[in-house]
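Good morning C.,

I know you're traveling, so I'll keep this short. The sequence:
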Amino acid sequence: MLFNSYEFLIFLPIVFLLYWFVFKPLKWQNLFIVIASYTFYGWWDWRFLLLMAFTTFCSFLSGILLEKNENNRQKQKIISATNIILNLLILCIFKYCNFFGENLAALCRCLGWGIDWITLDILLPVGISFYTFQALSYTIDVYQHKIKPTHDIIAFFAFISFFPQLVAGPIERATNLLPQFLQGRQFSYEKATDGMRQILWGLFKKMVVADNCAAAVNTIFADYQSLEGSQLLLGAIFFTFQIYGDFSGYSDIAIGTARLFGINLMRNFNYPYFSRDIAEFWRRWHISLTTWFRDYIYFPLGGSRCSKLKTIRNTLIIFLVSGFWHGANWTFIVWGAFHGLLFLPLLIGGRNRRYTTDIVAKGRIFPSIKEFCQMLTTFILAMIGWVIFRAETIQQAWEYLFRMVTTFDFSLPAHGKDPLIYIGILLVIEWIQREKQFGLQIEKKGIFQYRSIRWGIYYIVFITTFLLAGKQAEFIYFQF
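The tokens, ready to paste straight into the viewer:
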């Protein structure tokens, strides 16, 4: 079920009303969340439900067993390792089986061994990487004594399957989300209206920006070998904003929807295209995934509290794993390596933490020339990475980038004008609101203290979203 579908438009208010006015006790609310979430997820394919339920039950059971063997650290290691390996094995079978098999067969052929790989026709479950990592975080946190295991199986199933963030994040931690299902929730009008505004902004980014860019991107990438460099540059820019509008739009809708049910999800995007270097970009892009890798892989490897050489190794591992997490294709691995190489000069020079808390041009309308050049450079580097990410093969990525810089003619295709306008609107609003959580978070001060002005803006965005919506497309990150 897509957030931008008529089915969800019917589904959400029904679930909302039943949740607050019928299933009032905590246990019943949690059970209803599980039923609603499994309905939402099973809308694609009911068979996916069995796999998610198995992953959830194994992770729940691992917590119970870890608690029972609290005084036996060796058994705890075996229990946690077993559940982690089991979850990763399931993920690898469905997501990476053909990739490993095909590359092994290719390697064998290079060595003169006649081995053929039969591609398995395996349907990739929607969002399997997201809920698997969420389940893994619970087992690891219990093992590390960051959270006590829960005996409430309904609350745990609600934690793993919570439908707003189930298929494309944010990837929540057990330490943040699970306790919210173990305590009573009260309806908050302010929280709900704030959630509705964030949903509206997410729909604008998805339906107007991402979906309109997608049509142009598909056309340009399909015919890149016959197009001139300026049109290819436009295609790269469009995909850069397509993936941002698509993914951050999903996150906004997920976070806003969760707030309707009294649940707070972590922020997943923080205006990444206003970053001044690649290190800041990765602190602002897909925050739930980057912090997951930081806490569960980078820090256990030693993080930065070791020799410079090992720190470089740990950093490269994180970027390569991040690329591989996105899919079973060498383009994703090269994309991760590309960002890792961009990050290394900052790390080696001790400049990777220059921009950790401050906001660019804070308190000013315009950035300085230096800040503008920094943002433009970071944007261009990220855009080059997105071309690699979008390409089907490494060769296609290279050919696309090569033609983009060698056949430039400044022509603008007819289908490229409207998306540029929508991108411009997005950038202006987000620049103005860069100190807020999302684009439509308007404070009640100045002219905005008047309700008619605030609601007028919301109605304009609402009407614009549905009038200018592009052709409906699935969210890009569903495939991951």
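Safe travels,
E.
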